């Protein structure tokens, strides 16, 4: 009976995982179907707007999961990274510009999607579409930047589908109002020009330029440059539009004191330089060099004791290192190891003729 329950549990877990992985693709397929459906039928189900919102919220959630799983760090391109970490696809210094444009685009989307077309003046509709165009532009840049990755690509693709469908739906509804004669009759000639539904997307393109100009001017007050919209994508490393080359990642084994030397606050752990361990670059500090020099002396003077201590260290070091997930944790381990470092130093000065030379020679490039 327990075997059957185990099989059922494994099956349910498998189905759940597959469902979680398949959901972004299913929502993308649904959004594409909804767009084609409206093109053909010129009508939609009320459920569609709810699915639109769900797809964008879940898309942002999945993107955050992907960023965490792929060790993507949103730091400046010249910041030193370690092991499998990757620099972010948007420059942190210019992210404010991208964020503000996306916020304006979201407001435009809410305006043209959820306010009835008959309650929108032509100018307001054109401004809303212009804002959506700016958001669509960011989505295109996002898609190009992450073109080599499938999962991050799904969010901008879905947003593009939703935004462009919203524009099309508004144009169709505005056109129905014109045909039904429900638009204003005052200043008829001007009204006819403004209410020409098929011209709304073109008016919006014209308004996109001054709208973007206003955003840029406002962002200047917050230290953003006019070229920030471009630098947000180019001042990165390792992505499609990146124009910078980041320093190579430094590797450190996760179950050694290398974790502390590379992961703690510099004022505490005092990293000295980079070194070589097993053919890979690591960050070293004096504590690490002292410990390795002590181990070297121990292996020379008493190999049997060295093997015994090394076995204990290997078995306990890795579980401890898994807990070192922040700079404060690395600092704490460094301070806890300080008494041992003093003991190691005392032994080296007792048994070695040139202890400082031996310490300095550790992990030498």
Account of the protein in words:
The structure is a single chain. This protein has 14 helices and four strands. With 365 residues, the chain is mainly α. The chain folds into two domains: 211 residues, no CATH class; 103 residues, no CATH class. It has a two-stranded parallel ribbon with strand order 1-2. A two-stranded antiparallel sheet has the order 3-4. The termini are far apart.
Map the helices and strands.
Blueprint: H1 2-41, H2 47-69, E1 72-73, E2 86-87, H3 95-114, H4 122-145, H5 150-179, H6 188-194, H7 200-220, H8 228-234, H9 258-263, H10 266-269, E3 271-277, E4 280-285, H11 286-301, H12 303-321, H13 327-351, H14 355-360
Roughly what percent helix?
55-70%
Structural class: mainly alpha
Low-confidence stretches: 184-195
Q: What characteristic shape results from the CA principal axes?
A: elongated
Total domain modules: 2
Please state how the strands of the largest beta sheet are arranged side by side.
1-2
Count of extended strands: 4
Mean pLDDT, rounded to whole units?
78
Largest beta sheet, briefly? 2 strands, parallel
Strand content: under 5%
List the secondary-structure elements in sequence, H or E: HHEEHHHHHHHHEEHHHH
Total number of helices: 14
Q: Tell me the Rg in angstroms.
A: 30 Å
């Amino acid at each position: 009976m327990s075997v059957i329950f185990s099989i059922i549990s494994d099956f349910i877990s498998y189905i759940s995982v597959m469902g979680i992985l398949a959901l972004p693709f299913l929502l993308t397929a649904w959004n594409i179907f909804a767009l084609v459906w409206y093109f053909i039928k010129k009508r939609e189900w009320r459920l569609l707007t709810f699915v639109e919102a769900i797809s964008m919220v879940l898309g942002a959630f999945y993107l955050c999961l992907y960023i965490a799983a792929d060790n993507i760090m949103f730091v400046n391109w010249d910041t030193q990274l370690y092991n499998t970490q990757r620099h972010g696809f948007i420059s942190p210094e210019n992210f404010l510009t991208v964020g503000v444009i996306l916020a304006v685009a979201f407001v435009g989307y809410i305006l043209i999607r959820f306010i009835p077309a008959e309650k929108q003046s032509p100018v307001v509709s054109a401004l809303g579409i212009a804002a959506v165009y700016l958001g669509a532009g960011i989505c295109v840049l996002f898609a190009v930047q992450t073109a080599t990755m499938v999962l991050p690509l799904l969010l901008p693709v879905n947003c593009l589908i939703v935004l462009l469908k919203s524009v099309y739906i508004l144009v169709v509804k505005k056109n129905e109002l014109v045909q039904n004669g429900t638009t204003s009759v005052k200043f008829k000639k001007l009204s006819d020009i403004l209410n020409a539904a098929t011209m709304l997307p073109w008016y919006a393109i014209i308004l996109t330029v001054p709208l973007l100009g206003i955003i840029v001017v406002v962002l200047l007050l917050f230290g953003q440059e006019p070229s920030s919209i471009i630098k947000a994508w180019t001042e990165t490393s390792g992505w499609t539009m990146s124009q910078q080359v980041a320093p190579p990642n430094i590797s450190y084994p996760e179950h050694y004191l290398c974790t502390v030397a590379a992961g703690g606050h510099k004022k505490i752990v005092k990293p000295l330089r980079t070194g070589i361990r097993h053919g890979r670059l690591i960050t070293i500090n004096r504590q690490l060099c002292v410990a390795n020099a002590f181990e070297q002396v121990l292996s020379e003077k008493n190999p049997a004791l060295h093997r015994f201590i090394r076995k204990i260290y290997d078995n306990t070091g890795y579980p401890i290192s898994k807990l070192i997930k922040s700079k404060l944790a690395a600092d704490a381990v460094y301070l806890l190891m300080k008494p041992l470092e003093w003991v190691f130093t005392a032994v080296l000065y007792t048994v070695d003729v040139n202890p400082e030379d031996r310490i300095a020679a550790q992990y030498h490039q």
